[in-house]
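Why Glycosyl transferase? Reviewers of the renewal asked for a concrete example.
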Amino acid sequence: MSYGHFDDDAREYVITDPETPRPWINYIGRKDYVGMISNTGGGYSFYQDPRYRRLIRYRYNNAPRNVGGRGLYVRDAESGEYWSPTWQPARVDLDDYECRHGLGYTTISGTKNSVATDVTYFVPPGEDLEAWRVTVTNEGSEARSLQLFSLVEFCLWDAMDDISNYQRNYNTGEVEIEGSTIYQKTEYRERREHFAYFACSADIDGFDTQRDAFLGNYEGFDQPQVLEDGAATDSVAHGWAPIGSHQIDLDLEPGESEEIVFLLGFHENPEDEKWAEPGVVNKEYVEPTIEEYCDPESLDAAFDELDEFWTDQLSALQVETPDPETDRMVNTWNAYQNTVTMNLARSASMYETGLTRGIGFRDSLQDQLAVLHQFPDRARQRILNLAKIQLKDGGAYHQYTPLTGEGNAEIGGGFNDDPMWLVMSTAAYVKETGDTSILDEEAVFENEEGTEAPLAEHLQRAVEYVWERRGPHDLPLIGHADWNDCLNLNCFSDNPDESFQTAEHDIDEERAESVFIAGQFVYALEELAALAEQTDVLPESSDEYQQYADEMTAAVQDAGWDGSWFRRAYDHFSDPIGSSENDEGQIFVESNGMCGMAEIGFNDGKAQDAMDSVRERLATEHGIVLHQPAYTEYDERYGEITSYPPGYKENGSVFCHTNPWIMITEAKLGNGERAFDYYKRICPAAREEISETHTTEPYVYAQTIAGPDAPTTGEAKNSWLTGTAAWNYVAITQYILGVRPDHDGLVVDPSIPADWDGFEMEREFRDATYEISVENPDGVESGVASVEVDGEEIDGQTVPAFEDGETHDVRVVMG
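Here is what the prediction returned.
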């Protein structure tokens, strides 16, 4: 069952049933001001930081779902009947409903009793506001007297404080009303730093700013007292729960329409500004902006600019393959999700509250891998920003706060895979751009002034951090955890029994080792060795970095191989994890995928054996699960991973983030059929017809899909903000379609299904455009017989980086 369909020409997903299994959302805004819009108009907005600059209140885990925050109501002034054109919050059945999620905007249309209402939500480029462009049309044969009510439920800035510190917050809410604009100025009396505003283009017939006056003392958002009565109360909030609501009365003849614009915006005063009147909002800062965007012509221009932005960004890589679902994901939705995920990491979605997580170090560095061809300058700056939260010993703060850029001291470091992601992301950036100057850029350590060092030294310290922290098998120590945050092998019982503590073991010393980090280290060091050949600013030579990689490879071959697959780790007592010796958790996907991407075991058949084991033991119809068998009871030797029921999250779900590592390995091995098969198993567009099972949006990737051990097998959770998006994009474009950047140019090395007769790709690379046509006359899965560039055959499979601003034709014949 599906709840809508793709409109590929419009680059929109069209939802035709408002009661989707979960709120299906979209994001508006791409820089400082960001909002989430659900298919029923819910969600919230913030400026820069989803915790400390939250504009709209949102209730997670609420029943009914996704109410409060934003709202629109249309009321028939004669009959008293009212509804929401977005279905929620009123939840009155509509005669017709449609939601179109587009790139940076959402349009929702709802018709009831011959009154059609359309609303488009978007953030004008470069502005710190969201516009709601509402059009109400009388489609009936008689004149209608109608009323339109808006609603914003303000959050009192710090979203954590907003839901916990009621003894203060119930006394601090303050607003100002001037004309058709409501100013939310809570805390402005004290700090006078920032305020929000909710403006309307029309002359209003009433307003409310106190939630209880609007809703009533015991009524909900589905039956507000103001809508029951048909008149705003002109309430002015003093403490309690401030809101913004406008009442606009409309008299429409048959066929007549009226457009009303609402603007929800944020303003932060200049630091050196002085105020003569404490508590009085400096409206002069925002009045010109309000006037500008209440004008439909300005909104038209802003919307056109938004459309041009996305057209330009997506044109950096476009494909035409025999598979329509691949095309729509690569050309539009996966690329779009990559951009959102780069902006927000894992901070704010319908599953991430924005209260406790900032921007993740490893998360953000992986997210960049998929957007380097679109946003090289932003990616460059993000790498340097992340280098600033690297610790002096080469480790890293696991997260940082967006508003301050400082590392999160509460979480700290100890995630021992973090350092290598800095190496991998930097190497990928240089391969895409050819810009080795980033290695000379200075960045502090731990956000501490006076500790500046070139990025090249940051990379060297990352290498030393892992190299100097190896355990009994010469494998890297896992620390608190590696990529799998829930595999905690250094967590010990407060009252350990004999099976935990013996005379020959000291439980205060961390000894657990990670085969995953070992594979990651080999992958990263070989990238660093190649990078060292491009520049002399790295502290060690290419040969020295390669020697590190070779020695770690030997350790993996010796201690990391279990006979048919790569082990996952060793615990504190040197007992293997992810081994046939274990009763549960015998084989894990992460170590097999990472060691495979590092090409460990390619020469002796181990890598292929590992992939065969993954296919036999981990692959399901819904994707590749993290491990099998799942853990059936809590085991403190392994930590949080065993706290989840079997089949969910880190305990045996399809953790989609890891699936592309297997796709990439299979593609590198030349197994195009397998690589593409795995791609389609978790491809959101390919799961659209089972939306009642999948439950999350069919246009973006989710973090997890319930595994075969779970009662809800196939159900996805944690959509949008996931490393799944970036890695799947890398897997399909760079390894299955096989067009990937390298230091000397674009490598063309497809690994595709044998029944494909070819495909086409247009890709921008270093100030040139490459129109690539791949032909597969012999029906092979991999292998390249010839490459022609502008009509001339070249040696090898690397198309030169022309950097000439021209378009070049590339013809590839597989065989």
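The chain has a mean pLDDT of 94. This is the kind of structural detail the renewal will allow us to pursue systematically.
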